[in-house]
Amino acid sequence: MVHSKVQAVTERIIERSVDTRAQYLAQIERARIEGRASSHLSCGNLAHAIAASSDEDKKLIASGRGPNLGIVTAYNDMLSAHQPYGTYPQLLKDAASRNGATAQVAGGVPAMCDGVTQGRAGMELSLFSRDVIAMSTAIALSHDVFEGALYLGICDKIVPGLVIGALAFGHLPAMFVPAGPMPTGLANAEKVRVRQLYAEGKVGRKELLEAESASYHSPGTCTFYGTANSNQMLVEIMGLQLPGSSFVNPGTDLRNALNDAAVKQLVQITEPSLHTPIAKILSEKTFVNGIVGLLATGGSTNHTLHLVAMARAAGIQLTWQDMADLSEVVPLLCHVYPNGTADINQFAAAGGMQYLIRELLGAGLLHDDVHTVLGNSGLKPYCHDPFLDDDKTGVVWRPTVEESGNPDIIRPASDPFSSHGGLQLLDGNLGKSVIKVSALKPEHLHVKAPAVVFNSQDEVLERFKAGELEKDFIAVVRFQGPQAIGMPELHKLTPTLGVLQDRGFKVALVTDGRMSGASGKVPAAIHMAPEAVDGGNIAKVRDGDLIELDSNAGVLRVHVDDAELAAREPAHCDLTESGRGMGRELFANMRALASGAESGASILF
Asked: Does the pLDDT of residue 40 top 90, yes or no?
């Protein structure tokens, strides 16, 4: 039986979304066609679509006997996580052929790496790349020659963008195909230690680069539990990829066998008797399952934006309050860096997604009556681990372990790390914001200190280097929101604020920007809404104002009389130069049209 609070939040979402969900499903029904897509094309349309295909594929597509699958790929070989995708199209085409189908690369989508652009001008394009990816996905599939689609994407804004684009073609069955994490390298805690030494000037660039390169060292997803691996958790617990496929390393026999199995399964769910389009999979209950997974694992705060936007694409109205209410009853079951010392490979070895899903199902915290890429069998098949079969070419699934392989990494629902989820909503006279609490020590959950106001993260670093921040304070970094400069991640602040916290000072961050999914050691109230340029009171904070950040009570407020705060003139910031160079001028209209953080920070809805 589903927990009463989970059920109540779900029913609230369903009721709130009645009109928009009905409109979406009606749109998808209009797009649904009987028979193979190729049979509805004119001869000229079809000839163009198959002109470069092999003779065998031409015959199969023209006959309409087997499904034609579109491949939407985010491949580039600058992202370690996406480099393995370079060989996937031909492998997926071969797998399709073995299963009586065809496959074509429908199009590519951009894939930028936040790890490369942290603290750089390019980071200001990062969040908007999600909406560009969604639109690029729509262009790729707009040829209307496919009966299903394979989506190749892993990292930060890429998976949410692909999901939003896929939902625009919600009448098509969809399969997400991961590439897996890189093997374990330098321990994440050691990497952070060297970063903080560099911030203090105690080691040089040579030592820093050596540590970073030992951590990020091969093809595959970065091994910490940031946004990329939170994406993989989400698409698995939401039923968009095969059970146990998220965290299998690239280039292994099991990885290759899972890719073949993904194509085979997609072919099956394109058949009329088993037809399972993505619009059917991504229901209100499925999105609640995704939120529960995010809370139970202490996942990336970026998904407080992405889940809202993804749901809107399916006609579903999610709010931060929904997430906060679920957080009251969803326990924290995982400690994976930055919430602990383990990496994602160690998480998978200790039980991983299959153990997590089984525990959450057993506690009544997940809806089991949902569709997945396996059909209408619910989430119980996702409690099984994949193994190579006896021939070492196919995949078999077996029940997951009964007990955690390491209770310091993943625990049963009966003995969680915390009874409260890993994310918290903060509210008060500055507006609404979110905070990741899963990585915070108890003594950092409540900070009350004077404000020091900045208009950029570089100002923080300059004041730190000048020795002006050796004190208790809350850094207010504003004019970082989506309408201001595109809401970049401010991960460059983490080592600096971490150093001050380690020196015994009470420090915290309040911002209308974002922090990386890898952040969490320092209390950070982020995604402040409304943002400074949209009338938010964060623009009225002054140096010395006493700010209280209370994660336990869910409160963020500045201790200034209401009348005085209302009478203050908001600060202004000249953003002209920050909107130029490194392609930023091309995104001026996106900044102008962006919605607030609470509604997904998107231009699409």
From this structure: no
At how many degrees (to 10) do helices 227-237 and 352-362 cross?
50
CB 327 within 8 A of CB 507: no
Tokens of 216: 């990020």
Rounded (10°) CA dihedral 121, 123, 125, 126: 170
Q: What is the largest CA-CA distance in the chain?
A: 76
Q: Would you say the C-alpha torsion 320, 323, 328, 332 has a positive or negative sign?
A: negative
Distance CA 506, CA 500 (A): 8
Neighbouring residues of 8: CB distance < 8 A, sequence distance ≥ 6: none
Residues 501-540: tens digit of each pLDDT: 999 999 999 999 998 766 678 999 999 999 999 999 999 9
pLDDT recorded at residue 217: 86
pLDDT tens digit sequence for 402-411: 999 999 999 9
71 beta partners: 105, 150
Alpha carbons 216 and 210: distance in angstroms, whole number: 10
Nearest to 114 by CA among 131, 126, 132, 130: 126
Q: Which helix (H) or strand (E) holds 386?
A: strand 384-388
Confidence of residue 258 (pLDDT cuts 50, 70, 90): very high
**Angle at CA of residue 482, ends 603 and 521, nearest 5°:** 130
In this structure, how many other beta carbons lie within 10 angstroms of the beta carbon of residue 271? 12
> Which residues are bridge partners to 556 per DSSP?
549
Calpha distance 345→68 (Å, rounded): 35
Return d(Cα 251, Cα 260) in angstroms, integer: 13
Q: What is the pLDDT of residue 392?
A: 81
Tens of pLDDT, residue by residue over 197-211, are 887 888 888 888 888
Over residues 108-137, mean pLDDT: 93
DSSP-derived secondary structure letter, 310: H
d(CA 90, CA 68): 14
DSSP 433-470: EEEE-TT--GGGSEEEEEEEEESSHHHHHHHHHTT---
Q: In which residue are the tokens 């790349």 written?
A: 129
Among 305, 337, 307, 126, smallest CA distance to 234 is for 307
Amino acid identity of residue 445, one-letter, is L
SS3 263: helix
For the record, the structure tokens of 249 come out as: 């390393």
pLDDT band per the 50, 70, 90 thresholds, residue 170: very high
Q: Are 478 and 539 in contact, with CB atoms under 8 Å apart?
A: yes
Which backbone phi and psi does 272 adopt, to 5 degrees? Answer: -55, -40
